[in-house]
Amino acid sequence: MFDYRFQWRVVWKHWPELLEAALLTLQITVLSVVFGLMIGMVLSVWRKSDNKILYWFTATWVALARNTPALLQIYLAFFGLGALGIHFSPYTAVLAAITFNNAGYLAEILRGGMDSISPSQRGAALGLGMKPLQMYVYVIFPQVLKAVFLPITNQIVWAMLGTSLGMIIGLQELTGMTTFLQSQTFRPFEFYLAAAVIYLIVCETILIFARLVAWRAFRW
Amino acid sequence: MNNLTLTFTANDFMLMLQGAGITFVLTIVSGFFGSLIGFIIGWGRSLGLWWLYYLLGLFIEVVRSVPLIIQFVLFNSFLAIAGYPIDPFTSGIITLSIYIAAYVAEVVKAGIDAVPPTMVKAARGLGMSYFQCFRFVVVPIGTRSVLPSWTGLMLGLMKDTSLIAVLGASPPELLRSSQIIITRIQEPLAILIGAGAFYFIMCHFITVAVQRYETSWASKGKVTA
Amino acid sequence: MNLPNYMTGLVAAMGLSVVAHAAQADLLDDIIADGELKCGVMLDVPPVGMRDNDNNPIGFDVEFCQDMAEALGVEATIVETPGPDRIPAILSGRVHVGIASATNTLERAKAVGFSIPYQIWDVGVAVAADNTDINSYTDLAGKRVGTVRGTSGEVAFLSEFETWEDQGTTYSSFGSNAEQFLALQQGKVDAIVESTTIFGEYAKGEGADVIRVCCSFESAPSDWTGLMVKRNEQGFLNWVNLFVWHQWKDGRTNELYNTWFGYDAPQMSFPGVHGY
């Protein structure tokens, strides 16, 4: 007995708000992945370092990022730092938390990729007179990124999904906006379905873009 | 007027402990069914039937691109308007199983791909049937290569069970029971750090246990793919 | 007495009752026959729905449900329904009636059936206890404001927000009151907009030295809330309406107001208008 009648008119009426919120989701996702990747590279190098402090700093970061729920990380970035007198806006807090999370996971992914690269390449690069930084930028990471491209795209999707938790601390991203609209119209099914479709589109857009970048960079 | 205690009580600790137990049960049950479904899907994608490959691929893509919160609400509302209301806890477990199955399917496929084709050919050449070869060659070798990724998925699943709270599923799991306490004593930070510690301990021990297991495995004879 | 005839009659009567039941499934009859009234209540909105020390449901809405079950002569079951689950729960029959302080807007009434009003709330502004420069809701221009997503306080604020946005006003839409209060406490927002009843509850407990209830949000109309049932259950809705009316007439509504909100119930008929 499927006697429910879908009412899509009300969703169309609020289409602009949904799109605006989707752009916010897209923006935070892209920024958090870019920053996360940069920090993740540094962490993965430090993880290999002989310096005990750098090693433990990295190990702690990775363990905390991977073993606690992202929601908690967002909460701590907003209210936890707030209790210490450091105030972020909801936008910055979500971006910082998702970046922190991304960096932890990406560092681990990159470390796995670095293990697959023969140590003799380091020797060769250093032997050619490269500085360690040059070695990582020109020799190691291009190969690592290529080797672990798939797990990285997975992480991009995770990051996008993680932004939806930002609604708890006041961010009007796509899930937050959808929740607001459904509470005004009492049409949860229509609005959440619309949001699911938008997420799918945003996700595919990001992935296609990532593949294009990779294709340009790695010359597949 | 109601006399509410505005501090953390022993009762609250028991509620959180029970919540941790529920989190664990949710993880085990949906992890089991999710792995089972994911295994079938991953195996289906390795058969070399292009239409099956893309059909299942579409399913995986959709499930992975939509936030779990939205999947919970959609599946629950869909059952509701279709006239088959089931309690939120069960609908939550089904959603979680389907959700994690999409990820497991990718891992399973990677595991099957990790087995060198020459090895499969050799096994078949020795007179093994397709299923014998799958059971005794592909599964053991594939499992070893993807065990770490699978563990990662299960840890992710444990943290994701917290999102079932959006349905008000009862009994409450760890994060939901923390929120219940927060609503009463208005002390979100301390409670959530406590909840985070619970998660950290559960995840960390599983991680360490699996690492130990892998190490002991590796020392028993390494499989080179 | 002719036994076979008696048996035939009994069987015929049983058969008829089954047919009648199938022919017109009436929710009110079902509830009475099953002996259970399932109420969908939100339990993260003190003081209308919350939990006590043993984490059992209490609050205005919880007691309202228990009263209703008593009037029906059945057992009350409290089902917690978070925001996104409120409507699916009602549509699917997982709950019979939603008692969740829901504002009876015309937009929402397109999706569910509302009873006559059973609570009236006012939207107000609260600031940090040591704040001195916000003394009217118009002072919110240029300030950072926190609301709870989807509440009438948020809707009231948003109607003014467009004119204030140019003056540097920002707003955050939080997931629940717990986050909203914490944000005010930490100074992440200068003021919060919410129903005054909720402020009252908070100010009595944890928020005693933390917040100051500043003022009414005067441009916002009072918030008239109703019980919710499935839209086509007109028969049940008739009974629910009469129940709400009796609660008021018997003084029970007033009693609940005093217990949970600490003041008398306001008039629940809109002046100068027929009906409600």
TrEMBL record, chain A:
It is a multi-pass membrane protein. It is found in: Cell inner membrane; Cell membrane. One of its GO terms (molecular function) is L-cystine transmembrane transporter activity. The chain crosses the membrane at residues 22-46, 53-76, 88-107, 148-171, 191-214. It comes from the Bacteria. Coiled coil: none annotated. Keywords: Amino-acid transport, Cell membrane, Membrane, Transmembrane, Transmembrane helix, Transport. InterPro entries: AA_ABC_transptr_permease_3TM, ArtM/GltK/GlnP/TcyL/YhdX-like, MetI-like, MetI-like_sf. One of its GO terms (cellular component) is ATP-binding cassette (ABC) transporter complex. Residues 18-210 form the ABC transmembrane type-1 domain. It holds the Pfam family BPD_transp_1. Belongs to the binding-protein-dependent transport system permease family. HisMQ subfamily. PANTHER family: L-CYSTINE TRANSPORT SYSTEM PERMEASE PROTEIN TCYL, MEMBRANE COMPONENT OF AMINO ACID ABC TRANSPORTER. This is Inner membrane amino-acid ABC transporter permease protein YecS. The lineage of its organism: Bacteria, Pseudomonadati, Pseudomonadota, Alphaproteobacteria, Rhodobacterales.
From TrEMBL, chain B:
One of its GO terms (cellular component) is ATP-binding cassette (ABC) transporter complex. It is found in: Cell inner membrane; Cell membrane. Gene3D superfamilies: MetI-like (1.10.3720.10). Residues 20-210 form the ABC transmembrane type-1 domain. InterPro entries: AA_ABC_transptr_permease_3TM, ArtM/GltK/GlnP/TcyL/YhdX-like, MetI-like, MetI-like_sf. GO terms for molecular function: L-cystine transmembrane transporter activity. It is a multi-pass membrane protein. The chain crosses the membrane at residues 20-44, 51-74, 86-105, 189-210. Keywords: Amino-acid transport, Cell membrane, Membrane, Transmembrane, Transmembrane helix, Transport. NCBIfam families: HEQRo_perm_3TM. Belongs to the binding-protein-dependent transport system permease family. HisMQ subfamily. This is Inner membrane amino-acid ABC transporter permease protein YecS. It comes from Octadecabacter ascidiaceicola. The lineage of its organism: Bacteria, Pseudomonadati, Pseudomonadota, Alphaproteobacteria, Rhodobacterales. The gene is yecS_2.
From TrEMBL, chain C:
Keywords: Signal, Transport. GO terms for cellular component: extracellular region; outer membrane-bounded periplasmic space. The keyword Thylakoid does not apply. InterPro entries: Bact_solute-bind_prot3, SBP_3_CS, Solute-binding_3/MltF_N. Residues 1-22 form the signal peptide. Pfam families: SBP_bac_3. GO terms for biological process: amino acid transport. Coiled coil: none annotated. SUPFAM superfamilies: Periplasmic binding protein-like II (SSF53850). SMART domains: PBPb (SM00062). It comes from the Bacteria. Residues 36-264 form the Solute-binding protein family 3/N-terminal domain. Belongs to the bacterial solute-binding protein 3 family. This is Cystine-binding periplasmic protein. It comes from Octadecabacter ascidiaceicola.
